[in-house]
Amino acid sequence: MQVDQEQDARIRGTMWKAMGKSPFVMVGLVGSHDHHEPMTAQLDPDANSEFWFYCNRDNRIAKGGEAMVQFVSKGQDLFACIHGTLVEETRREIFDKYWSNPVEAWFEGGKEDPNVMMLRFDLKDAEVWEADLSLTGKLKLMTGNTIRPDEAGKHAEVAL
Length: 160
Prior knowledge:
alpha+beta; 4 helices; 7 strands; 37% strand
């Protein structure tokens, strides 16, 4: 389902705002039979085409490549499946910029541990769903009647 550019920008903005409140996602490599795993995205409000993950070099996503990230907002009113490419982030200033006490808690050897790495997720596109049931949709949900897509919220495929 394609939407106009204004709607597209609004949905992208809503997704970024929701991720800023709860940056926890599930990440997996495309074509891998490994399960996706929970990670914390390191977000930058000025970088809307990338975000980052810290992990160990033996992590299942450490080799990088084409990947998918699934996100569900805290209120479960926004869902996103984001497609892109994971690549090792080699810029030390970026590695240091996002390092924090909560990040360090996951890495026993701290940021100087040679096993710790950072991956940059270069975003390509996303499919985003906003769950906002209309009054009719809510009544149908409570009574077990079929809900039409236009009664359940908005859906868009957006370029990132």
